[in-house]
Specification:
alpha+beta
Length: 186
């Protein structure tokens, strides 16, 4: 005879696994990014993923050059001109797997950002990160653009792209300098 726990276990084993989501408090409650800016960032990423040739699957990782098929990490996405408490998205490898390479699309980054904004920022008043790719060894982290570690990383990086998003303005992305590990940007 099946017990409810066994039935639940069988049912859950048939569902596709979702990527891990990690919500954590910022250094201080007053250091949350501005919600409206985060929602605009998610919209801009989603808009970008719908453009021709912007949503092609690519291999992302450190030690890769950015080409039509690969993307160098780390990357930072943000909307400039929003002020110090604005919202940014840092895409980088899990520090435990510095040589990780994952295949995913810009739409996956937009989906991860949406999950973090909805589950962490709105529901729990926290920031967070969500895994990308089938191995989950690359993370999309929601951060404030004035977080010290992010500011240092952006200072070492170079602007590699931008796009004008109707109703939002410019979406910018940068590639971090070199292959050094970016400090935790909470």
């Amino acid at each position: 005879m099946f017990t409810p726990l066994i039935i639940l276990s069988i049912f859950l084993s048939t569902l596709p696994f979702t990527t891990p989501l990690d919500c954590y408090p910022p250094p201080a409650r007053s250091q949350l990014p501005i919600l409206d800016h985060c929602q605009e960032l998610v919209y801009a990423l989603t808009y970008t993923s719908r453009l021709p040739h912007k949503n092609d699957a690519k291999t992302w990782g450190r030690g890769l050059r950015s080409t039509d098929f690969t993307e160098h990490l780390p990357k930072v996405y943000w909307l400039p001109g929003r002020g110090p408490q604005s919202c940014g998205l840092n895409v980088d490898v899990d520090p435990l797997h510095p040589d990780a390479r994952e295949v995913f699309r810009i739409s996956d980054i937009a989906r991860a950002a949406t999950r973090v904004v909805n589950i962490c920022l709105i529901a729990r008043r926290k920031v967070g990160r969500d895994a990308l790719g089938s191995g989950g060894r690359v993370w999309a982290k929601l951060v404030r653009t004035d977080a010290p570690g992010l500011v240092r990383a952006m200072g070492r990086g170079e602007r590699v792209g931008s796009i004008e998003v109707p109703g939002v303005g410019e979406l910018v992305w940068m590639s971090g300098g070199g292959n050094e590990t970016v400090d935790e940007v909470r």
